[in-house]
TrEMBL record:
Keywords: Lipid transport, Lipid-binding, Membrane, Transmembrane, Transmembrane helix, Transport. Residues 53-111, 519-585 are annotated as: Disordered. The chain crosses the membrane at residues 630-647. The keyword Transmembrane applies. Belongs to the OSBP family. Residues 572-582 have a biased composition (Basic residues). PANTHER family: OXYSTEROL-BINDING PROTEIN-RELATED (PTHR10972), OXYSTEROL-BINDING PROTEIN-RELATED PROTEIN 8 (PTHR10972:SF216). It comes from Ataeniobius toweri. Coiled coil: none annotated. This is Oxysterol-binding protein. Residues 55-74, 84-101, 560-571 have a biased composition (Basic and acidic residues).
Length: 648
């Protein structure tokens, strides 16, 4: 009780101090006549929406208003300057740069400005087994395939080959990558699991859950054009949290797709980039997804690194066209020492239908195998515990499980930007759904020709494409989400996570410094945080072209999007131009210093090599002299013995 009373007194003292500071700031404004924002009105501008303390009555301590001037001062602040909210919003970037810990007065009438989402209306799910992965090609389409095959040769990369529209799935590859998060609740469970072995099992279970959702027939999603983005969200009913998914095509040649997934309240985030490659082998081809994804449990500081299987299509020239998954997969956590190895098996040449979509694997601690997995990745998988010898069902996508999985929410078409996937490909999708292949081909050609033209224009102007939501580390080459926030969730301070214009943010009760660990470029970009509503934790501004590392694009790319931030990004950009240029210069100087250090290290290594060779030669010379001395000494001893023997 004494501790509780002390805490309440401290809270009262904190609020009383802030009110007095607000009054002093207000008096300064009145005396000086300057256009500035008082501290208390700034706090009022960042009130929480619909949030109330449980101990509100206790906070109204008699000491809170110990004198009449404080009470009158608060009333004056509430009634003064009706434009206080607008002014505070204009200056909130400067306030967030100071990163003050501030008390937030609550205002239930303020609305949270976030992207509206609507429940996904239609979803296509293929059946388990080989039937959903085969397709009979019509005679008309076979002629198109033969025309296509005349342009390629075995072993050729098909990334630059224009594919016919009849094999396209009417959605973008960026959308396709989101299939892995319909069961993100498995990750929510893994984040709070105390046993490291059980955590690894839940991670493996989540990984496998992303494959049973497949289109009917043999279909390939659209190749995203550079600058294309996609965003969606899943609502977790059990934890009342949201999992946000953001993806962008950051390069066209080579085609690289970067993505970021975040649910800070449930304690996990995931990031990665995929380089899509394809190889033609005559009667078959493989779509290879080269890259890694990093799953992080925020409360534990554990990273799980994983890769992706490849898709194999056979029966192009003869036989039935069939799509399968194959390859060796590794999921490893360096901190705990646990790892999992999975093998997606292709159907043998003489195999039965039971051999389709087979998967096997093992879960290990170091080199010790703890459990093995066997089954089919689109149906039932069993786990065999090596210690107990028991065999249990590890994964089974039953109709009940499919019915109860998380519901995906997407951005309405009218709220989407010009370069968001659904809006960008809407005409192609409409033509494919209407089975009008001619119209689909024409609309697809318009998009492809537009990005080629834009690429030629950028090349003529010696300009590089600048990603809007991701940035590339100049040292490692990895792509990182610009607005990544990997701090553990603080239930006493963090209120809600939301997304606006591709920026995933967190509304907080108190402004606190964001401490991020990451790459060199992420540390160099620790700029002011943007506050869209009240007091919320955000991340650095988007950089201009002059501050961006060069992307690997060299050749065909898409029209550059004319992006506008609905919360006044043009005003923010003009305000922070000088700061961003300075940070870009600092990054350049840092890179130059690193290059200088590398050069110095090379010089030192060369000097060490020369000294080492000299030392070896001197050692050999020294060794030779010592051997000669030994011979002389031995000769003298023998001579002395002979003399003594003769003169005896």
């Amino acid at each position: 009780m004494d501790a509780l009373e002390l805490a309440l007194k401290c809270s009262s003292l904190l609020k009383r101090t802030m009110i007095r500071e607000g009054k002093e700031d207000m008096s300064t404004v009145s005396a000086g006549g300057e256009h500035s924002i008082n501290f208390y009105s700034l706090l009022r501008a960042h009130n929480m929406h619909g949030f109330q303390f449980n101990d509100t009555d206790h906070l109204k301590d008699p000491d809170l208003y110990s004198d009449k001037s404080d009470r009158e001062g608060e009333q004056d602040h509430e009634e003064s300057d009706p434009e206080g909210l607008e002014k505070s919003e204009e200056s909130d970037s400067d306030t967030s740069e100071r990163q003050d810990d501030s008390y937030i007065d609550l205002d239930p009438n303020e609305h949270l400005r976030e992207t509206p989402y609507m429940e996904q209306s239609h979803e296509e799910l293929g059946e388990a087994g080989e039937a959903a992965q085969t397709e009979t090609v019509s005679e008309e389409n076979k002629s198109l395939i033969w025309t296509l095959l005349k342009q390629v040769r075995p072993g050729m990369d098909l990334s630059k080959v224009v594919l016919p529209t009849f094999i396209l799935e009417p959605r973008s590859f960026l959308d396709k990558l989101s299939d892995y998060y319909y069961h993100a609740d498995f990750l929510s469970e893994a984040a709070v699991e105390e046993n490291a072995y059980n955590r690894m099992k839940k991670v493996v279970k989540w990984y496998i859950s992303g494959f049973y959702k497949k289109p009917k027939g043999l279909k390939k999603p659209y190749n995203p054009i550079i600058g294309e983005t996609y965003r969606c969200m899943w609502l977790h009913q059990k934890t009342n949290s949201k999992t946000f998914y953001i993806a962008e095509q950051v390069s066209h040649h080579p085609p690289v797709s970067a993505f970021y997934v975040s649910n800070r309240k449930d304690g996990f985030c995931l990031s990665g980039s995929i380089l899509a490659k394809s190889k033609f082998y005559g009667n078959s081809l493989s779509a290879i997804l080269d890259g890694e994804a990093r799953l992080t449990f925020l409360n534990r500081g554990e990273d799980y690194i994983m890769n992706m299987p490849y898709a194999h299509c056979k029966g192009i020239l003869y036989g039935t066209m069939t799509l399968e998954l194959g390859g060796q997969i590794t999921i490893a956590c360096e901190k705990t020492g646990y790892s999992a190895q999975l093998e997606f098996k292709l159907k043998p040449f003489l195999g039965s239908s039971d051999c389709v979509n087979q998967i096997s694997g093992k879960i290990k601690l170091g080199k010790e195998v703890l459990a093995t997995l066997e089954g089919h990745w689109d149906s039932e998988i069993f786990i065999n515990d090596k210690k107990t010898g028991t065999v249990d069902t590890f994964w089974d996508p039953t109709p009940e499980l499919r019915q109860n999985r998380l519901t995906r929410y997407t951005v309405p078409p009218e709220e989407q930007g010009e370069f968001e996937s659904e809006r960008l490909w809407q005409h192609v999708t409409r033509a494919i759904n209407n089975k009008d292949q001619t119209e689909a081909t024409n609309e697809k050609f318009i998009l492809e020709e537009a990005q080629r033209k834009a690429a030629r224009e950028r090349k003529a102007k010696c300009e590089e494409w600048v990603s809007a939501l991701f940035e590339q580390d100049p040292i490692t080459g990895e792509w990182h989400y610009r607005y990544a926030d990997t701090r553990p969730w603080d239930p006493l301070n963090d209120l809600i996570q939301f997304e606006k214009d591709g920026c995933i943010q967190t509304k907080v009760q108190h402004c606190t410094p964001m401490v991020r660990s990451g790459s060199l470029i992420s540390l160099s970009n620790q700029g002011p945080r943007r506050d869209n509503c009240k007091c919320q934790v955000t991340v650095p501004k988007r950089k201009h072209k002059s501050d961006k590392p060069k992307s690997p694009e060299s050749g065909c790319s898409s029209p550059e999007p004319d992006r506008h931030d609905s919360s006044g990004s043009e005003r923010h950009k003009s305000k922070h131009n000088s700061r961003l240029r300075k940070k870009g210069a600092d990054l350049t100087e840092l890179q130059s210093a690193i290059e200088s250090i590398k050069q110095t290290q090379e010089d030192i290594n060369r000097s060490i090599t020369v000294l080492r060779s000299r030392t070896v030669s001197q050692a050999e010379s020294s060794s030779f002299l010592q051997q000669r001395d030994y011979v002389v000494i031995a000769f003298l001893i023998i001579l002395q013995v002979l003399i003594n023997y003769i003169f005896k």
